Amino acid sequence: MEKTTITSYGGVHANVGDLLVNRLLPNRYRPAAGPSAFPDHGYPSEHRPNTPGVPTGAFAHPHRGIATFTCLPAGSPEPCDGHGHTGTVDAGGAQRMKAGDQTGER
User: How far is CA 20 from CA 16, 46, 106, in A?
Assistant: First the structure.
């Protein structure tokens, strides 16, 4: 019979722009899950509805060449990209986005 080892890790708090997330990787048991896997848990937060505003870059972080996948158990955020494009994600839904090259060209 093979021995099975189970490890539980609660993650660490990290700020991503104005959002607080629980970052699961890297940790002391697993330094990474590949070059582009970031399993973060976003804590509940409240935002004013219908105020996407003009992107200022204050929340900018690199996503070049990767895809993001978001599962949403509650709420309906309206993410805004660097070009001002928006899209609503409804509660119970998911969103997949492929990041561009960050040059400002389409």
Answer: 6, 12, 31
What is the per-residue pLDDT across 58-92, written as a single tens digit (0 to 9) for each? 556 556 666 777 777 777 777 766 677 777 888 88
* Whether residue 60 is found in the same domain as residue 25: no
Report residue 42 as tokens. Answer: 């976003």
Query: Both 59 and 100 in a single domain?
Result: yes
Q: For residue range 3-27, list pLDDT tens digits in order.
A: 887 777 788 888 877 778 888 877 7
Q: Would you say 6 and 29 are in contact if contact means Cβ atoms under 8 Å apart? A: no
Burial of 23 (0-12, 13-18, 19+ CB in 10 A): middle
